[in-house]
Amino acid sequence: IIENERFRKCLKNYGIKNVFLIGGILFDLKGEPATLKKDKEWGICYNGLLRGKDDILKTLKSKNIRYEIEEEKSLQRAFMIKFIYENITINIIAVYGDEVIKSIFAGENKYDIKHFKKLLEKMLYDDLWLGQIITLSERALLNKNFKINKNLNNYIISIIKNDELLFEVKKFSFDRENEEILKRIVNFISERIRKYDKNLLSLHPTIAEIIISSCGEKYTREDYIADIIQFLSCEEIAKSLRLEVLQR
To answer: What is the 3-state secondary structure (H, E, C) of 204-234?
Structure first.
């Protein structure tokens, strides 16, 4: 908003006067509603939030933009930064647990975080963050592969279109706790992709590798393929994606 004049004009043209950027931590390591106190103790997200806050304030100060800040006003809020730039009001909020829902939805909330926890426990997969990262990464690979090789393909499509690879993924679905089986399947799929879709392996690093490695974790291409295999080992997901790919 500050640096990109075209983006500001776009917001103004559509009559947008208030922008809310909400960073929400829903659950702690034990699967309970997250709190600021527990995050401080365990150091999962809190230090990153502080670095983000400092970066924002540094940018605002360098541009001589006046701002308001509230820090740790409650047990569920780390901070809130508010400033106005060219008549656009920006609110940047970092909150925990039920405060996430209250910040997103105006008025009386029908459900609390415990309700969503029950829903998530019924799902096969609840790692929404990793799912989002893989989605962004695969979309970027699709775009990059097409621009470079005119080949509209990524790892998920490559696996979904190949019966042999999809069969290997199904094997893993019967024994998801076996790391040796996963490692063997990753090697098998990597070799097949190297043979049939060799351009994919030349497109590196993926967005997932960049983001997760930037958090201080060792994350290789093999780890990326392993995460996709676990994602596709859900039969409902694999069937839905395969149907969509084959109908193109």
So the answer is: CCCHHHHHHHHCCCCCCHHHHHHHHHHHHCC
Q: Is-cis flag, bond preceding 33, omega within 30?
A: no
For residue range 38-74, list pLDDT tens digits in order.
888 877 788 888 889 999 999 999 999 999 999 876 7
Structure tokens at 150: 């005119």
Taking the C-alpha atoms of residue 236 and residue 6, their distance in angstroms, rounded to an integer, is: 41
Mean pLDDT, rounded, for 144-158: 88
**What count of other Cβ atoms lies within 10 Å of the Cβ of residue 92?**
19
Contact (Cβ atoms closer than 8 angstroms) between residue 223 and residue 130: no
**What is the pLDDT, as a whole number, of residue 226?**
92
What is the identity of the amino acid at 112?
D
pLDDT tens-digit map of 202-223: 888 888 888 888 777 788 999 9
Three-state secondary structure call for residue 86: coil
> Using alpha carbons only, what angle is made at residue 19 by residues 17 and 20, rounded to the nearest 5 degrees?
150
**DSSP count for the chain of H helices, then E strands:** 13, 4
Distance CA 131, CA 191 (A): 24
Find where tokens 């004009």 sit. 9
pTM of the model: 0.53
| Local structure of residue 111 (DSSP, 8 states) | -
